[in-house]
Amino acid sequence: MTADADQTTPGRRTVLRLAAALGATTAVGLFAVDRFASPDGTPPRAPAAASPTASPPAGPAAGPAPGAVPAAVPDGVAVPGAAGPQAAAGQAGAAGYRLQPMTAYTPPRFRRALPPVRVRPFLQVAPAGRTMVLTFDDGPDPRYTPAILDTLRRHRVRAMFFLCGEMADAHPDLVRRAAAEGHVLGNHSWSHPLIPSLRPSRIRGELGRTSEVVERLTGAAPLWYRAPFGAWNKHSFEIGAELGMEPLAWTVDTLDWTEPGADAIVGRVRAGAAPGVVVLSHDAGGDRSGTVAALDRYLPELLDSGYRLTVPRR
């Protein structure tokens, strides 16, 4: 190798100087970003702006369609005034946008289609074979509901419990137990009033408040409701449908609310047993010891006769 080969030409020296300058600039930029990052690598939050809060966009605000049930929001989750990454970026900057939770992009919670507004309640279920439905109103009551649940579980039978909201709120463990054991929980108003005597706003409060309690305790709002005393009116049908519920009455009334004794209750169930029948009993609202004793007698009889005790499906 000659001495001339070791010497760098002027053009080559210029190229090397430019490359060195570009490398230094890049390194300084990288070090600057690294210097302001958090130790765990999280980008820094943008400093609070001194300008006032941005006004909401002009135009009508989006909302649920008329008559639609609003989507439930879990406790503790804030509902933003505007949705989407653009709104978040406008308020918190790029760093704030990157910190938005991924739940903002999950699909909306599934909502069952609202039922039609009925003009009368269902009195029985479709008689698919020898099926019957047992229903219990006014509870839960810790004096009687546990014994009824025990009997149903012993015979592996599901039933419907139409709950009064104030009773459900007072005895949440019984509500959770009934739901956990596969029973269907219905809405029987909050305080068991005579529905036709109430203004529509009171009817909505009685039904809506009860549905909220049941949903809070079990994770699912009732899909069925029954008017106290079997007294329905136009407003109750409309409001029940708005809350996603179908009205269910009964075919056989055991008249246990008159406290006639277990023998009379058993006799009425035997006489009224037929495919599709809905049996009305009570697990609260008075002395229900006769209801408890009667269930323990007629339930195994119905099963031995070939009846399948079930619950309606929606």
TrEMBL record:
GO terms for cellular component: membrane. Residues 40-67 are annotated as: Disordered. The keyword Plastid does not apply. CDD domains: CE4_NodB_like_6s_7s. Residues 130-310 form the NodB homology domain. GO terms for molecular function: hydrolase activity, acting on carbon-nitrogen (but not peptide) bonds; metal ion binding. Keywords: Hydrolase, Metal-binding. The keyword Lipid biosynthesis does not apply. InterPro entries: Glyco_hydro/deAcase_b/a-brl, NODB_dom, Polysacc_deacetylase_ArnD, TAT_signal. GO terms for biological process: carbohydrate metabolic process. It comes from the Bacteria. PANTHER family: CHITIN DEACETYLASE 1-RELATED, GLYCOSYL TRANSFERASE-RELATED. This is Oligosaccharide deacetylase. The lineage of its organism: Bacteria, Bacillati, Actinomycetota, Actinomycetes, Kitasatosporales.
